Fold this protein.
Amino acid sequence: MSNRREFLGGLVSAAVAAGQTGGSRILGANDRIRFGLIGAGARGMEDLGYAIRCPNVEAVAVADVYTGRFAAAQKLIPGIQTYQDFRRLLDDKNIDAVLIVTPQHQHCLQFVPAIQAGKDVYQEKTMAFTPAHARRMKRAYEGSGRVVQIGMQMNSGPGFQKARELATAEHMGSITALQGFHFRNAPYGGWRRNVPPDCDTAHVDWGAFQGEAKAYPFDPQRYINWRFYWDYSGGNVFENMVHQVGFWYGVLGWNIPEDVTMTGADYLAPQMHVPDTMSVTMRQPEKVLFTWNSMFGNAYFGEGYDLLFGNSATLIHDEADNVTLAPQHRRGEPATAVPAISATSYTDYTTQHFQNFFDCVRSRKEPVCPFDLGYRVSIACQMAIASYRQQRTVRWDPETEEIV
């Protein structure tokens, strides 16, 4: 029988192996997970609502640079602790995990301190805003023992596993092309929000919001409608292309593209700096051409319609998470098993994605959207934006981890 010293030594060794030092508790399989939310905007509150549906978890704190958002969090969870400075949330050693749901330019600025504080992290997409941010996040993550789940929730739906089973040489032959669509008929992509009366410097820490971005005098439009501005947003590439890229990179194990070309324009939303109509072409090292098209002036394809083309079959994945394998046929012949464009709405698997994250916090296993997948997908998205803004094709240099 082990003596007390051996028993305690075993606990310490297990904690080190699992990365549980640095302030986190050692969790058993049935322990309650205490988590905090960083970023209580629209998506942050949605994520909070999804997360608390999971069993045996407790939301104990919320942080946001805008104090006007605390009332909604306190209404959902009476008594929840609130902080305007997210670092005070990280100081709480009883918090096991954090959900980071801030604007895209801030992700690195909260992720790195959260990892250093010993927290497991659910990081909303797109994981990293720039290559420099991606490198900093990678350095913080490697060797930390932390569990990181990236918020690409389609990968927690049943369609993900079905696509993985069908997207093989046996079913499809040689795959050489993937075409993705994301169509909305919504002005400004449905992102435009009114400025609340109390959105002012008395309630917003404007310096904390700007972070490392270019400094401007306080502008409530920039704060509330941050998705419109390159300083804080990658537009619909970072909002939705990321989901479709993440789905297929996860299904097929693809790597960062060899090169990317993006074209587009802002035709219907004059207040936005980012485009509302766009086309992205990614040349994959797996010898596949991955193209993605998006617009805010038509909803024909819905919010996610993908066709994976092989010389034996076509695999279709739609926004309702239906996956269909259509056998090869020629024009003029009956199109066997080819589905129509889905008339059903987007199916959301965010609760399942959170459940996978919390399960992995307890088991220390790798979640369905781990850091490495988030890294590869974020670089692909960054390459698209760099191509659009520089009006040229860009490449990825794996040695320097830079877009060139």
